[in-house]
C-alpha cells in the first residue's frame, strides 16, 4: 500500500469521525440550532459521511483489503441515523444497525431483495413513493445523478407508523463505474407526535373559542343596532371598537382551524369544473362598498373571448380570491385595486391577478410572504391587524388544487398577487 493511499485513508477516517461527532451533537440538541436547521445539517453531515465511507471502501477494494472494507462499514454502524446502500439494479447491498432497527429486520432477511421490498415507504397522502418512474426517488437518483430529498415519509407496521425524512444520494465507483444509491433516513416519529399534539390542541382551542366569540360578536352587533338612538357617540364608538376586535378574533380562530385541517390533511376538496369569471364577479360585488369607502378605483379586467372553466373547488377558490382582494383594499391608501383574468388560447391554465397601488413589499420580505405567521415589519409598525395566516392558507389550498401562487412587488408602487389553476378537461372527474 503506497504512502499517498495511506494518507488519503487517514484523512477520510478523520473527517468521518469528526462528522459522526458533529451528528451526535446535533442529535442530542447540544448545539444552538433550530429543529429545522439541525435536521438539514444532520442530513448534510450524513451525506458527507456516507460519501467518505464509499471512497474509503473504494480505496481498500483497489488493494483487495477486505478487512479495510469491514472497517469502513463499521463506521456506518456508529452513525445514529439509518444508512442503506442499493446497487444500480435496485438490489440491497448494505444496511447499518440503525437502519435494521427502524426496519425491524435482520440482515439475512433483506439480502438480495429490491429496495421496494426492503423500504416500503409511503407519502403523507398514503401513496407509495415508488409509483411512476418519474416519482420514484431511487430511480430518479440513479438516472439523473442528483440527490433526492423527501420529508415526512411513512413506514407502516402493525402496531405503529414510523415517520422519516429521507435523502437519496447517487454514487458512482470511479474505478468500476458501477452506480449505487446511498439512502439516509432520519427518524422523526417523536417530532411528528409532538406536532400532532400541537395541531390537535390548536384545533380544539380554536373550535372552543370560536363559538363564544361568535356569540359575543352577535350580541355586540345587536346592541349597536338596538341602541342607535340612545347611545352617545363616544359610547357607540366603544362598542364599534369592541365589534371590530371580536371580528378579528373570530377571523383568527377560523384561520387557525383552517391551518390545523390543512396540516392534518383533513381538508376534503370537491373538485369540479368551475366558472372562474362568475366567482370573480361575486367577489367584486362583495368588496365594492369597501373600495368605495376608501375612494379606491375598483376594476375587473377579463380577456376577450371565452375563458375555459378551471378544475377546482369553488368554495376554496372564492375564499382565496376574497382574501387577496381584501388584503389589497386594506393595504392600499389611495389609487386602485384591479382584478385581472388571463388566459392564453390553447393553454392549460387560467391565471387570476390582484394588483394594487399600495406601498408595496420590501424585496427581502418577498420570499417569506407565504410562510405561516409571517408579517411584513413595515406593516406591523403601521398597526397591521393581519394574522399572517391568510397567504399561507391560500398557497396550500391552491397547491392542493394543482395550481401555484406567486407575488411581484415594487416598494412604493404596489403589489401583484397572482395564482394559476389548471383548466378543466373531460375525464378529470374520473381522475379525481
Task: Tag the structure with descriptive keywords.
alpha+beta, elongated
Task: Describe the protein in words.
- The termini are far apart.
- The protein is an alpha+beta fold.
- The protein has helices spanning 3-27, 35-63, 66-77, 97-103, 107-110, 115-118, 137-144, 189-226, 233-263, 276-293, 314-330, 377-381, 390-400, 428-431, and strands at 82-87, 92-95, 148-156, 161-172, 179-187, 272-274, 297-301, 310-312, 336-342, 349-356, 404-410, 414-422.
- It is 49% helix and 19% strand.
- Strand 9 (336-342) and strand 10 (349-356) form a beta hairpin.
- The relative contact order is 0.07.
- Strands 2-1-5-4-3 form a five-stranded antiparallel beta sheet, with helices on both faces.
Strand order of the largest sheet: 2-1-5-4-3
The string of secondary-structure elements, in order, is: HHHEEHHHHEEEHHEHEEHEEHHEEH
The helix content is: 40-55%
Low-confidence stretches: 61-71
Number of helices: 14
Which strand-content bin applies to the residues? 15-25%
The biggest sheet, with number of strands, parallel, antiparallel or mixed sense and barrel status, is: 5 strands, antiparallel
The whole-number mean of residue pLDDT values reads 81
Morphology: elongated
Rg over CA atoms? 28 Å
Cα separation of the termini: 62 Å
Helix/strand-derived class? Answer: alpha+beta
User: How many DSSP-defined strands?
Assistant: 12
Amino acid at each position: 500500500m503506497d504512502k499517498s493511499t495511506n494518507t488519503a485513508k487517514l484523512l477520510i477516517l478523520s473527517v468521518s469521525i469528526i462528522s459522526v461527532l458533529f451528528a451526535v451533537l446535533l442529535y442530542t440538541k447540544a448545539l444552538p440550532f433550530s429543529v429545522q436547521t439541525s435536521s438539514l445539517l444532520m442530513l448534510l453531515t450524513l451525506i458527507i459521511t456516507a460519501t467518505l465511507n464509499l471512497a474509503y471502501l473504494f480505496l481498500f477494494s483497489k488493494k483487495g483489503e477486505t478487512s479495510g472494507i469491514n472497517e469502513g462499514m463499521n463506521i456506518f454502524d456508529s452513525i445514529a441515523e439509518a444508512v442503506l446502500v442499493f446497487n444500480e439494479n435496485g438490489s440491497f447491498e448494505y444496511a447499518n444497525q440503525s437502519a435494521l432497527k427502524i426496519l425491524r429486520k435482520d440482515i439475512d432477511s433483506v439480502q438480495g431483495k429490491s429496495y421496494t421490498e426492503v423500504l416500503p415507504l409511503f407519502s403523507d397522502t398514503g401513496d407509495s413513493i415508488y409509483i411512476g418512474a418519474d416519482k420514484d426517488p431511487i430511480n430518479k437518483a440513479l438516472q439523473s445523478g442528483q440527490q433526492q430529498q423527501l420529508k415526512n415519509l411513512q413506514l407502516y407496521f402493525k402496531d405503529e407508523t414510523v415517520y422519516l425524512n429521507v435523502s437519496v444520494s447517487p454514487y458512482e465507483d470511479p474505478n468500476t463505474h458501477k452506480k449505487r444509491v446511498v439512502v439516509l433516513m432520519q427518524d422523526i416519529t417523536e417530532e411528528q407526535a409532538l406536532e400532532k399534539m400541537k395541531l390537535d390542541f390548536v384545533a380544539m382551542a380554536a373550535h372552543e373559542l370560536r363559538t363564544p366569540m361568535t356569540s359575543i360578536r352577535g350580541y355586540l352587533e345587536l346592541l349597536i343596532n338596538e341602541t342607535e338612538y340612545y347611545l352617545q357617540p363616544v359610547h357607540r364608538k366603544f362598542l364599534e371598537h369592541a365589534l371590530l376586535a371580536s371580528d378579528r378574533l373570530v377571523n383568527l380562530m377560523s384561520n387557525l382551524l383552517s391551518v390545523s385541517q390543512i396540516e392534518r390533511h383533513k381538508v376534503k376538496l370537491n373538485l369540479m369544473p368551475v366558472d372562474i369569471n362568475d366567482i370573480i364577479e361575486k367577489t367584486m360585488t362583495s368588496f365594492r362598498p369597501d373600495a368605495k369607502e376608501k375612494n379606491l378605483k375598483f376594476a375587473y379586467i377579463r380577456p376577450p373571448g371565452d375563458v375555459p372553466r378551471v378544475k377546482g373547488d369553488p368554495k376554496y377558490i372564492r375564499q382565496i380570491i376574497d382574501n387577496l382582494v381584501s388584503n389589497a383594499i386594506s393595504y392600499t391608501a389611495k389609487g386602485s385595486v384591479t382584478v385581472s383574468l388571463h388566459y392564453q388560447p390553447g393553454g392549460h391554465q387560467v391565471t387570476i391577478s390582484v394588483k394594487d397601488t399600495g406601498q408595496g413589499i420590501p424585496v427581502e420580505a418577498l420570499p417569506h410572504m407565504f410562510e405561516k405567521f409571517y408579517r411584513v415589519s413595515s406593516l406591523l409598525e403601521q398597526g397591521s391587524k393581519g394574522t399572517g395566516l391568510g397567504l399561507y392558507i391560500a398557497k396550500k389550498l391552491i397547491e392542493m388544487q394543482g395550481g401555484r401562487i406567486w407575488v411581484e412587488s415594487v416598494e412604493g408602487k404596489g403589489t401583484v398577487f397572482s395564482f394559476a389553476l389548471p383548466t378543466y378537461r373531460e375525464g378529470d372527474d374520473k381522475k379525481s
